[in-house]
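Materials and Methods. Structural model of Acyltransferase family protein. The 386-residue sequence of Acyltransferase family protein from Streptomyces decoyicus was retrieved and submitted for structure prediction as follows.
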Amino acid sequence: MTETCTTSGGRRAPLPPAGEEAPRPAAVPAPRPGGAPASKAGAQAKPRDAFFDNAKYLAIVLVAMGHAWEPLRDGSRAAAALYITVYAFHMPAFIIISGYFSRSFDMRKDRLQRLITGIAVPYILFEVAYTLFKRWADEDPGYSISLTDPWYLTWFLLALFVWRLTTPLWKIVRWPLPLALTIAVLASVSPDIGDELDLQRVLQFLPFFVLGLCLKPRHFKLVRNKRARIAAVPVFACALVFAYWAAPRMNAAWFYHRDSAQELAAPWWSGAVMTLAMFGCSMVLVACFFAWIPGRTMWCTALGAGTLYGYLLHGFLAKGSRFWGWYDTYGWMHTPWGAVLLTLIAGTVVTLLCTPPVQRMFRFAMEPKMTWAFKKDPVGMARGRN
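The predicted structure was written out as tokens:
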């Protein structure tokens, strides 16, 4: 892994949970004297990389499965071990991909517009929607809307908005990753940060985003080979064994990165130790996860374009199952076969929520064009007339 950020553009792909930034369109070569372009290759858009779409889809499936396992942890040590293992790498994987596809972000007008319509607007809409849902489903009419205190899954959109805005800064510093790790460590020992803007998560997850900014295609190729895939098997096996041992002994809140060490009833210095140790463990597991991701186009590849939809929409069902007491009412959910069935249901539901019909239905909220909200670009208009 490198500590110097690249400024080259990534391939075009949709926004979160992998939060990708659209690259600058390839320049069309100047016409020859006869009026024909010198080459048509520059005007052709780069194809999508199936590897990243597959990675995003499988990661969002793990997110949904993790939410399904959460209420089972108290009664099942195996469920707790799976939960801890998945939470150690699934969000870091998303964030690294988000950073990788943010490499081309600058303060250009079209990219700022995309930042607003693809991240800020969905954040506002779903923060309001989740709040209203909580009032109704949890019978909590006093719960108020707060755009500065994100609830449940919306924290990721707010964090991605902040990270994306800081991208130009990370491109100019000499050692971006060590600096980001230092900020994360300081945040983990600072209980006075509070809950505003979910800054603890923004700062503690920051190193993964900065790492994504610093990666190049060749770094992903290092883990996309047969030897890496074989090595990932014992590594994940050891992780599961350790998680099974640690489940009754460790506070799983460490994996959320939303609290300081003092808020987790731990000594302040443990925040620094845990931040660095968990970053290292997460990176090993993320590398193993990427090693298993197929690079060819598969039936699920197209679903990688809809991970934002699956991410935000499945949250209503995940929270509703708690509000309505499904895990307390239906005892079969706490049996081994019930846990397996819940896992399959979670994977199926989030898969359906990533499909094109759902994308078309909710595109008004996830990817609004909002041309009416922005001033027209006089330079672009002049080019269009010419």
